[in-house]
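W.,

You were right to be curious about this one. When I first looked at the sequence I had no strong expectations either way, so I just let the prediction run and decided to look at it fresh. Below is the sequence, 266 residues in total, followed by the output.
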Amino acid sequence: MARLAMARSAGFRLLSGAVLLTVAAASITACDDLVIGDRPPASPSVGATTEGGASATPRETPVALPMLPERPAPGDGWTVFTDEQRLVSFELLEGWTVETIEDPGEGFDEGGLHFEVSNAEGQRLAQLHTRITPVSEECAPDAASPYVVLSSEPVDIPSTAEAEGSIAPRFVVRLAQGFRFFSSYGLTDVVGGADGAACVLKNTVQGPEHIGLYSFGDATELRALDPTQVGSRTESFATIAEAQKRFGQKGFDQIRRMIMSLQVAS
């Protein structure tokens, strides 16, 4: 009898343990967000499919950039440069060279085009930049410098500028007056400043999204300098007449033609 009682007692304990395990398992299954120790709950895998097999994160279709059509060489000692993506193109004299600027420095967004054009003697004539980072700066009336427009001609290039002071794109040659007359030439789609004075004159054009703010000229901007800021590549003149003579030469007509021949994919 004692042995039978012990057997029954052991059986009861085994049965009770099984019931407790069953209840515990059911409780764990019912709590989907249960955290065991410091292990976080499992998250659904990326790219899981919903009912019907559709992906929960559909792939985006890449947008094709516009491209310029093939451009024949104009002849007469002139040739054509077009970048590999066929986003920009312009004419230049045979013997002039176009080189990629590997490190354009600060002031540009990633993915821009940067080229420098030099003549046969290695003199820099112009630089072309795209994806310029726009910078706005305050200009107090007493800080503005008088400027003179020596030349202004319309150019058929794309511009999306809509801000106050925007104009149709033009090729301009301008002088900013400081202790000398500092010159610059290039493309712009914005007026210089009010009442013939400005802190800075922009040689930039607001292009379509894939181009951004772009420039083709000797500099992206012009401002009057003080003697400590003048460098070896700074072009300046003692008088306006001296500047007019410089920019009236045949050699500059070739630079003007090159810059005004620019085409931009849009």
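Here's what jumped out at me. The mean pLDDT is 82. And, maybe more interesting for your project: The first strand starts at residue 78 and ends at 82.

Coffee later to discuss?

I.
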